[in-house]
Amino acid sequence: MEINNLTAELLEQRLDAVRKGIFVLGDGQNDVPYSRRFVFIVEALAFMEVVLFLILMSRYVDRSAEADRLGRSFFQRRQSELPAVDVFIPSYNEPLDVLERTIVGALALDYPKDKLKVYVLDDGRRDWLREFCEGRGAIHVTRRDNAHAKAGNMNNGLKVSSGDFVAIFDADFVPYRNFLRRTLPFFSDETIGIVQTPQHFFNVDPVQSNLGLENIWPDEQRLFFDEIAPSRDGWDVSFCCGSCSIARRKAVDAIGGFPTESITEDLLTALSMLNKGYKTRYLNERLSMGLAAENLTGYFVQRERWCQGGIQTLYLLSLVWSAATLFHRSTGLCGPPGAAACGLFPVDAVDHADPLSPGGVQRRRDLRGLPHAADRDIEPGPAVRQALQGDAQGQRQ
Questions:
Q1: How far apart are alpha carbons 314 and 193 in whole angstroms?
Q2: Residue ranges in the chain modelled with pLDDT below 70
């Protein structure tokens, strides 16, 4: 009830601002300041964004019962008839203690071993990791350069693999054994290109720990994964969040591999598949665990990268405006980038749960605590730099 009252109050405030803007701009004055016109446009866009958000959240779907039903029929077939699955673990500079549990977890998935292959896509080209993979039974893959970061790394993985489906886990996300048992049955529908699952974390994020609310306050991504994502799925406008997902190789091949035009390749993958007639399903079950940002440095850099990727998506007009219906474009898939570009929502409300590089900026630090090398080409803005300096000073103290 309190949430509904708050939403109604916010909507009324936006509507009142739009009314005032219309009145001011339409009163016959010829010297309306440009600043006032700009404010009116921003308020009008904000009002439309709130309306679209309320429409989006009017539906909610829980697909656990559907997973049960589809699973019973999907796994009735003989083991030899089950599809082959490749597991991609993109990596750059994660230490062994992070990679080991992910690789071991992927190898332990509850699925016939002759139908499962685990590929460690190593952009760091580390000999010790190759030896570890050989000892565990995983396939170690490298390439000449790190072009297009995570998207390029996964496209290289597609060249050396041949499974019918590709599951993707960042280097610090450990899948539960039943991940494939719960997600694969959805591909009985030939129109499903991706099945996305939520991202849960071992540790508390910096916001929780700084406020001392880790025991009573959920991590900030729960709003998206527990509430917004199921609502999007209710409208068939879910999108890929990168890690903890599984894709149909046929659909990936249909779009020419993982897109490299934006640093948020996960969103573009969903958009591109939608244009080819493939939908994304969301199963709201905890089927993996990973690491959240451990300090404000990773937290801010990660969010700024997500925002940059969302804004980049706006420039891919041929892709965005060909995305299915007007509702898909406005409410479902293209609303968050538009909101980010207009500054209508804070950066952490942009609904992209995974950046381009493996494991996320906050999860991929080398032994000195620095972000992934592929992320250092992004210069943080003044506000972010100030926050990062404060975080560094606090750590020294």
A1: 23
A2: 1-11, 13-32, 214, 317-397
- In DSSP notation, 20-51 reads HHHHHHTSS-S---HHHHHHHHHHHHHHHHHH
Instruction: Give 77-84 contacts, CB < 8 A, sequence gap 24+.
Output: 79/112, 79/115, 82/111, 82/112, 82/115, 83/115, 83/163, 83/164, 83/165, 83/184, 83/187, 84/115, 84/116, 84/117, 84/162, 84/163, 84/164, 84/165
Q: How far apart are CA 36 and CA 384, in angstroms?
A: 28
Nearest to 263 by CA among 170, 377, 379, 355: 355
pLDDT digits (tens, 9 = 90+) for 301-342: 888 888 888 788 777 755 555 555 555 555 545 444 444 333
The CA distance from 209 to 162, in Å, is 43
- As a whole number of angstroms, the distance between CA 90 and CA 304 comes to 21
The Cα 235–Cα 217 span in angstroms is 29
Strands 174-175, 165-168: pairing is unpaired
SS3 for 264-298 is CHHHHHHHHHHHCCCEEEECCCCCEEECCCCCHHH
CA distances, 5 to each of 13, 56, 220 (Å)? 12, 18, 22
Single out the residue of 230, 231, 206 nearest to residue 219, CA to CA: 206
pTM: 0.76
Instruction: Tell me which residue of 159, 370, 164, 330 sits closest to 251, measured CA to CA.
Output: 164
Instruction: Provide the pLDDT for residue 49.
Output: 85
Distances (CA, A) of 267 to 237, 281, 337, 354, 356: 11, 14, 10, 9, 10
pLDDT for the residue 2:
54
**What is the rounded CA–CA span in Å between residue 141 and residue 138?**
10
- The pLDDT, as a whole number, for residue 79 is 93
284 phi and psi angles, rounded to 5 deg: -85, 70
pLDDT at 7: 61
3-state SS string over 46-57? HHHHHHHHHHHC
Residue 239 CA, distance from chain mean position:
8
- CA angle 336–341–347, rounded 5-degree value: 65
Length in residues, the chain = 397
Q: Would you name the residues annotated as active-site residues?
A: 123, 266
Supply the pLDDT for residue 19.
57
